[in-house]
Amino acid sequence: MGAASHVGAVRALNEDSCLAGTHLAIVADGMGGHARGDVASRLTIEAFQVLADRSDLTPADVRRALAAANTALLDDTREHPERDGMGTTLTGIALVDHFGSPHWLVFNVGDSRVYRLSDTGLQLLTHDHSEVQELVDAGRLTDAQARVHPLRNIVTRSLGSDPAPEPDVWIFPPNPGDTFLLCSDGLTNELDDAGILALWRDRTTASAESAAGRLVTAAVDAGGRDNVTVVVVRLAGEHTDDGALATTGPRSRFLEENR
What we know:
Layout: E1 2-6, E2 16-20, E3 24-31, H1 37-49, H2 59-79, E4 87-88, E5 90-98, E6 101-109, E7 113-118, E8 121-124, H3 131-137, H4 143-148, E9 168-172, E10 179-183, H5 185-188, H6 193-201, H7 208-221, E11 228-234, H8 254-257
Antiparallel strand pairs: 1-11, 2-3, 3-4, 3-5, 5-6, 6-9, 7-8, 7-10, 10-11
Helix pairs in contact: 1-2
């Protein structure tokens, strides 16, 4: 794994946080400004920190950490009323034991994203919970229009809400060479898919760490209007594409079913 984060060229405070553990990576993009979105993302990371060094993760572990993160934000807001309104997106990937065999578990709340990277393309695995994505889904906006729409930063689901948000979840088997990109919207608001893929194909991004760093730097150089955070995850081995994701959709009840 490799991770990089930058406050950007405009903001004074970095409200993003990330975690790259043994078999777990997450990105949290805090919201709230004066309500301390940086606190929201930090508390979320702390809730997942107990899983960071584990190599025996299960879907139930992820479910419990998600619930603990949401509770931590609500408890903090009650203790500090001036932070009312803080929240955070959360996206992540974990290598978990699923009925006795390893599987990737991708989870998402909000508009931070997980992509699958390969030499041939960039595949978005998560689905944004945002105002503009709802307009795209309804056929009222194109993807290109959504990138510049004034509502593009309004999320419809986030941690720190009561009742707790329902995460989208995807599960699929691993392949040697699998590579994933986790990011806050500070990356995707500055770089389109073609730009991300071009940087990915650059030979100087041989390591996960260098790839994450170059993507963050490129987003800042392109305008850096928001905080930018990237985590790159690679599974050892040579990549093979067996189409496993082609029929893999959101498993909204998966975490509930695997308690």
